[in-house]
Design brief:
29% of the residues lie in helices and 14% in strands. It is an alpha+beta fold. The termini are far apart.
Amino acid sequence: MEHFKNATRKLYAKRPLFFNIGLVIAIGLCFIAFEFKVFIAEEDKVELPDEEPVVFLNDDVIQTSHPPKPMPKKLPEPKGDVNIVEVEELVEPDEKKEVIDIEEEMKDWEDFSEPEEKVEDNTPYDPFALEVKPQFNGGMDGFYEYIANAIEYPSFEQKRNIGGRVVLSFVIEKDGSLSEVKVLKKVSEGIDKEATRVIENAPKWKAGKQRGQAVRVKMTIPIYFQLR
């Protein structure tokens, strides 16, 4: 015979049986409760009168009905004779209609032209952003050739073998002249002054143009000073 290690395991096998027994008992108790009758003794019974019921109204209730609105007063009838005046409608005068000749109006518009307003632009432009770049007579090679011929090496720097690269900026005006010469990278006092003098005395350029108008152009150029 097989023995269980735990006694409660035997009860688990009978759980459906216990559930059915409990369900039958619960249904039986409900049926008994619905079918149970209570008997009242004769002395405990109360007889109700056969009279019709009477409803009592409370006089303190506020009436919610509104009284009728008063009729409007009649206007007094006019005394004496009443003259009725007939008003005639005003007739507006005929407006003269102007005849417009469309062809003549169009001719006037064709002859009309807006005045061209020229706004003076003094902003220095970058030469690479222009429609027409400024140009020296002979190009950049001709400009460097002018610089090489015009430069006089300063004696002080020549004796001391001083040289180097000077970087200058200048503005080409609308008439082609050069202005606002500035030294961006210096070498020595004598070399910087000589480079500035050569640029200031340079011949005129052909001015750059933007939208058909001459504009100012800012350029930067290096100049080398070297003894051979």
